Amino acid sequence: EAYGKRRCFHGPLFQTLVSLDQCTENAASCTLIAAPKHNLFGGLTEPTMLIDPCLFDACGQAVGLFCQIYD
Beta-strand (E) ranges in the chain? Predict the structure, then answer.
């Protein structure tokens, strides 16, 4: 819903926010899914990373949705 209604503009590789499960004016919880990394960096099929950049970005997406709801 977040991507279909154009609330989030992220392309397929960064569409890792599955759902905003609970949301109140003080807190929110969401479900995220890890996306495959083989297409994230051209030529690197198994990049070594300390943190998943797609999931890290999804945290910001969740905050953005929260702000849109409680603006």
Answer: 17-23, 28-32
